[in-house]
Every structure is written in C-alpha cells, then in structure tokens.
Please model this.
Amino acid sequence: MASKASLEVSSLVVPSVVELAKESSTSIPSRYLRSDIEKAVVPDGDRVLEIPVIDMQKLVSGGPNNSEVEKLDFACKEWGFFQLINHGVDSTLLENLKAEIDAFFKLPMEEKKKWWQSPGNAEGFGQAFVVSEDQKLDWGDLFFMVTFPRRLRNPNLIPSLPSPLSESMERYTSDLNNLSTAMLEKIAEALHMETEEMTEFVGEGRQTIRINCYPPCELSDQVMGLTPHSDATLITILLQLNDVDGLEIRKDGKWVQVQPLPNAFIINVGDILEIMSNGRYRSIEHRGTVHPVKERFSFAAFFGPRLDGELGPAPSLISEQTPAKFRRATVQEFYKGLFARRLQGKAYVDTFKIQQD
Ligand SMILES: O=C(O)CCC(=O)C(=O)O
Model:
C-alpha cells in the first residue's frame, strides 16, 4: 500500500557545504561558482519591498464578503507570495525550534552522518535535484523529510532526531498541516471553486519539509544558496529561522529581496495550485542567496495533493470563455518528471501548458 503512494526520488549524494565552509584555507570548488547570477535590485529610495500581509484570524473569522479573502485572492494573483500573521502557531514553539535546528546543524559531522542521504533516498541531510556529476551545486546543506501522511514517514527518522528537536518537529509539522488545510479552504473560497473539489483533490494530502542552512561565503555574489525555482506544491509555508534575509523573488522580471516580519510565515503559490487555478494564481520563481559573513537558516514546508490522484485545472473553473490552460496528468507522473531533472526556474510547469491560439 505504502509503495503505491510513495515516490522514487533519486538524487546524487554530494559533500557537506557546512563542512566545506569551515575549511577557510581552501578555495571554493568550481562546482559551486557561477558566472550567470543575476543581481537583485534595491527598491527605490528607502522603500523596501513589502509583500502583502494576510491576517489568518481575519481570514477565518469573517463572514460572507470577507475583505481578507479578497486580499488573499489579490496576493495569490498579483504576487504569488504573501506573509501570514496571527497564524496561531505558538511563538515559544517557534523559538525552541530555531535553537534546536541551529544545534542540529552544528553537530559534529561524525554524528550527522547517520542522517545523511544515501543513493536513491532524498531524506536526511544533503542536497536535492542533483542529477548529474557536472551540474553546478548550491551553497547550502538541507535536511529533507516526508512528514505527512504519517504512514509514508521513514519510521527511523523523526524518532531518531535528538530530543527535544524530535518533539518540536512533531508539533510544528502537525500545526502546519492543520494550517495548510485551513489555508487551502480559504484559497478555494477566493477562487470561487467548489469546496468539495478542493477537498477531494487534496485527499489525505502530503507534507514534506526542507530545512536549509546556507553557510557564509566570501564569494557570496558568485555562489547560489538555492537555485531559482518555483515549488512543485499547492502551497509552501516558509519560516526564516534567523534574522539574516536571503529569500529573493522574481517580481516583474527583477530579483528583489523579501524582508519577513518576525515570526510571520511566508506563503507562496506552488505550480500545482497554478495549474489547478487554471493560471489565475502564479507560482513565482524564487531563490536563496548567501551572506558573505553570516549563516542563514530557513524551514520550508511543502503541501501537495494525495499521490494517487490526478491534477489539472479545477473543472468548476473551466468554461467556454475560460478554457483549460494546462493539460491533465496523474500526480505520480507530475512528480516523476520533476525529480528526473535539475531545478530550472519555471521550466517544468511550462511543459504542462496547453498552447492557446
Ligand atoms: O531559504 C529560503 O528563503 C528559500 C527556501 C526555498 O525556497 C525552498 O526551500 O524551497
């Protein structure tokens, strides 16, 4: 049963960048150096780029014609990104998690090895989407794990994490699972979709998490912490774990840095929601940059539909006036294609587009 709903992910095993960064006497290996990094723009004057802020309490407590739902629709349509405040996840839990993750990544390599990725298994410490020996590598280590549904978890992973990180992860991922369900309900409302359509499509859902650690690098303008990409999800909930900014989004063709409010979640529309909304919502390219002297941490939680379903534009959003812009595919087919390639902006979701005359 589990094998039918699980995914085969193959990623080549690569060295630890956290360890590499400690060896300050050695030069940066050429596999990490890039000559094609587009510079970010600094917004005009002293104005910083403010991505829309959505208040979860207002979103769930408003009745019909709730203006927060309209704000949500605008944010997903025009930005593909927003910050979520009053999300209800306990701030003490967030603070504990930050400290515990910091300590986890700082464990000696000898200890971390027991959670290192192995060939053909993307879970644990390592990198993702490494499909060839000569592709450029990101300047960062990640920790990746399937968290929901519980039956798809690696039975040895969460319980083997050091305590109290293991308990905090259990609580945090479970809170985010509930939050994502509530958020997707509101997104269905904003799209004027049938709620049952969303519920049926998501089914038991699937959550994976990726913790990113980007060590500092003196050649920070020549390395990339996380390659430009869009997420193969319905939605992603990101928490910046320390006060070092580095998330950049491509806004109107230019790279701009996001400055999150303390403990706000950054939520973005993923490729699957772009397809499901028939292109009303756009998944926006983003990337993780590296700081010259400070390390940076972030925690991304990815939410997708059940693996045994089909994806495509929601039938209630298709009409003669608004024909389908994307082809249908099984969820398995979608992920299989994704993991067979390296990350490359929005190139993958574009392969699902139907040419319009
Ligand atoms: O580190 C960040 O802010 C971006 C993380 C991200 O985009 C991801 O993990 O997919």
